[in-house]
Structure of 7-carboxy-7-deazaguanine synthase:
Amino acid sequence: MSAVTPALDAAPAATADRLKLTEIFLSLQGEARDAGWPTVFVRLTGCPLRCQYCDTTYAFFGGEWWDIDAILAEVARHGVRHVCVTGGEPLSQKRVTGLLRRLCDSGYIVSLETSGAIDISDVDPRVSRVVDIKTPGSGEVARNLWSNLAQLTPNDQVKFVVCSRADFDWACDVLAEHRIADRCDVLFSPSHAQVSPRELADWIVEARIPVRFQMQLHKALWGEEPGR
C-alpha cells in the first residue's frame, strides 16, 4: 500500500498534539525481532545525524503536520497489530513520546527505531526501543549516547550496522565491554555497499557471539520502492 499524506492546512504552528510526518504506510516489518509481521510504519521527519549509509534521507526535510488523533485514526484504518515509529530520528520531536504512549494504550505492539544519539529514558516501557549503536564506519560514532545502555530492558533491542571488518571487531568489543547481550537482543546488519551479507554471517559464526544476524527483508522484496 502506498504512503499517504494528510489533508491538513499547510505548516501550522507546532502544538502539543502535532507531529511532523513524512509518511504512514503498511508493509512487512523488514528488521529486528518482529521481522515478517504486517506493520504500520509512522515515519517522522527530521534527523540530527548524517550516517553515510542512510537510506531514508528523504525524511530529513519537508513533511506535513499531523494531529496525533489523525495519526491514530490512520494507523487504525490499516487493521494490523504492529506499529513501528521511525524516521529520520523520531526522538528529535519530543512530542513523539505522547504518540508512543497512546499507541500502547490502544493495544498495539509498538516499536521505536532510534539512532541512539538521544536519551530514551522518557519512552514508554511498553515500547520496544530498537537502539542503534553507531560504528566508526557510520561516520557518526561520536554521537553515541552511551548512557542509553543503562536504560535497556529485555523488551528492547540494539542494532549495529557493520561497514567493514574493523567495524565488526569494534562492535564485538563494545558488546563484550558493556555486556549488552545480557540486557536485550542484539542485531548485526551489513551495510550492503561495503560488507556482503555472507561475509558478516561468516564473521558472526566464526566469532560465536550472542547476536542475531539480520538483513533488510523489505529491500529483498521491494528494493528501494517508496512506501514499502
